[in-house]
Write the structure tokens for this entry.
Amino acid sequence: MIQVKQLQKRFVAGRGRKARTVTAVAGVSFTAADGAITALLGPNGAGKTTTLRVAAGLIEPDHGRVSVDGIDVATSPRAALARMGVLSDARGLYPRLTARENIVYYGRLQGMAREAAEARAEAMAELLDMKPLLGRRTEGFSQGERMKTALARALVHDPANIVLDEPTNGLDVLATRALREALLALRSEQRKCIVFSTHVMQEVSRLADRVVLVAHGRTLAEGTVQELCALAGESDFEEAFVKLAFTPEERGAAPAL
Amino acid sequence: MNGAWVVYLKELVDALRDRRTLVTVLLSSVAVGPLVLFLVSTLVGGIEKRAEARNVMVLGIEHAPTLANYFARQTYTVQPAPADFEEQLRKSRLGEPVVVVPADFEARLAAGEAPLVEVVTSAANQRASIGMGAVLRLLRGFSQEQALLRVATRGVAPGLLEAVRVEERDLANAATRAAQLAAMVPFLVLMAMLYGALNAAVDTTAGERERGSLEPLLMTPAARAALVLGKWGAVASVAMLIAVLSCLSFLPGQWLLRSEALAAMFRFGLREAAWFVALLLPLAGGLSALLMAVAVRCKSFKEAQANGTVLLLVVSMLPLVMVFNQEGEAPWHLWVPALAQSTLMARVLRAEALPLADVLWPVLVSGALAATSLTYVAATLRAAAVK
């Protein structure tokens, strides 16, 4: 279970006279339960990536706290990270290592023995349907192959909590579908707590058990797709999202298609 | 510590699989030693050959039978100079100075008037300038012989003409003379080591950042110190490997020496190689850490490489202090990385004693450099990942 409470984070952009403060997150709160998929839905620049980076202990928040299975990320980041598998926005692989070596390396960094890490790499390859990739160097992998390897790497230590930042970015239909099936299996069969951020409506309605709507660095609404539609008074989820996430001025400024 | 070991092994495998870069570095560093030796030996061999040949190039030898007789007695062979010798000397096509004998040489010599003999060379023509000394000595010998003969016929003891006796005595022993030639070895070995470290250091820091693999790496529970130590270990190992190979490459390089005199002068045996390696290994550790500290601030591989090259330039300039400093070796030389090692390596080549304290100071400095740089890298790593 991942709990995010009243998260706030500001950055200073630029230097000297040109320096200005940018508020990335101004009050995000949500709870992601075990055995459920929670979607962090919001437009670009809403603060989703910053929220997930704080959750992974990569950035310290100015205010608020994140706990993973009751462990505070700020005070004991290493214990929290051991219970988390994070697929971040940056998912670079080592091009001169094979997919297996990439995965096993992360397993070893998680404190696993070599044999155990090797076995997990095989199991993850089975789950993600990437067995033929294991022995190949990752140089020249397609986007989908990269994503699978990065996901296997993030999940090598079999974490109870899985955090994914825009996981379908750059994936084609088949790869997206494969990822979706893998995530659903992880939720239903292994009762993992899964959080993913996205700005794609389709993914949310097909995957998420709960949706957390984020815009301008704040949590605006939380609930199932149906609950959010009811809240906005719209039958279409996209209409509901636009109505809830954007101000009337923003909606007016968007170019008509 | 286990984490550091895992990172070390991975980074080492990664660096060693970067075949193209590795081959380039190895070829340029390990092949450079023997190549430079070969070039120097060819040059020196050419000079020796010319000295053995005992040739003298003269224009108008037919006007001076007495001089020709002297040359012959000194077992020199006279070669006629080409008509356009001035042009050839200027363009460095002629490798020997030319003696120009005037038409009235014999008559003036007989009359007791000193005839003028010109020795023509060009300071811009290296090969011809080298031969100048021998020709001048030969002509002075002739002049002296003539003078002695005249004095003797007048009944004066030849010894009277020599008010002062002058004799040369060179204090440099064989090893010191050899050091002049071998002085370039420390520089070449140092540069090879640095270039070997540069690529690995940039790849594990700025390269990791550019690939987007630094952020996921920091999201593992591995301690920051373990990551930095493992990476540094791998970079330092690559630098040390190159340093060892580069030092060893000068051993077989000696067999390529064509000139026997040169081979006797160039003393770089197993003992010297072992000393070089011992002096360089701590420096490899210190400079690897410094390169990582420079590279970790950079956003891209390219930027890090540019900054690293500036650092390499500075480090390679430091040993020049030894050349420009007329005061000789100062105690502070041993406090400056690279300069200290160059100083000590030069001492090894001169077969001088190395007191333990002199060897330990640079090791301490390298250790402090590594510790400071690595602390900085560890502190910057997280900021580098998210920016």
User: Anything to note?
Assistant: Chain B touches chain A at residues 2-3, 6-7, 10, 13-14, 17-18, 208, 211-223, 382, 385-386 (CB under 8 Å). The radius of gyration of chain B is 30 Å. The first helix of chain B runs from residue 2 to 17.
